Amino acid sequence: MVSRRIVSTAVVLLLAAVAGCGSGEPAGRTDPDAPVDDSSAVSPVAPEGTGTVTVTVVDAAGEPVAGAMVVPEVVESSRPGFAFSEEGRFTDAAGVYTLAAVPPGEYTVSVVVDGEVVAGPEDVTVTADATEALALTASG
């Protein structure tokens, strides 16, 4: 029997390949030092009855990893058919990305840099009207 972690890792790698994140930068970004336009970012305030997951990614030295792709996956959600958007989920300059309006349930989160999974999958339980903090250290 194939374990959930093996399947999750395979899915994360497939998503990374499809997203074309070989550079580790969001699509269209050519200058990693250029400011990021967050004007279209989703508000981290979650609607009532949902939760929030704040993912912080650092390297082995504890420095933030900017531009890392955060890949959440549903294990079991209180909302049947719930799926995460495929739109850009990249950490900011502080190495942080927030998943908002997440229904209560069980999820995994992985981090991809340059097309490789560098952290996770890490299990996270989301509860209504709460924020879960997930700190991940990127390998390599």
Automatic annotation (TrEMBL):
<dbReference type="GO" id="GO:0030246">
    <property type="term" value="F:carbohydrate binding"/>
</dbReference>
<protein>
    <submittedName>
        <fullName>Carboxypeptidase family protein</fullName>
    </submittedName>
</protein>
<dbReference type="InterPro" id="IPR013784">
    <property type="entry name" value="Carb-bd-like_fold"/>
</dbReference>
<keyword id="KW-0121">Carboxypeptidase</keyword>
<feature type="signal peptide">
    <location>
        <begin position="1"/>
        <end position="19"/>
    </location>
</feature>
<keyword id="KW-0732">Signal</keyword>
<keyword id="KW-0378">Hydrolase</keyword>
<feature type="region of interest" description="Disordered">
    <location>
        <begin position="23"/>
        <end position="48"/>
    </location>
</feature>
<dbReference type="Pfam" id="PF13620">
    <property type="entry name" value="CarboxypepD_reg"/>
</dbReference>
<dbReference type="GO" id="GO:0004180">
    <property type="term" value="F:carboxypeptidase activity"/>
</dbReference>
<keyword id="KW-0645">Protease</keyword>
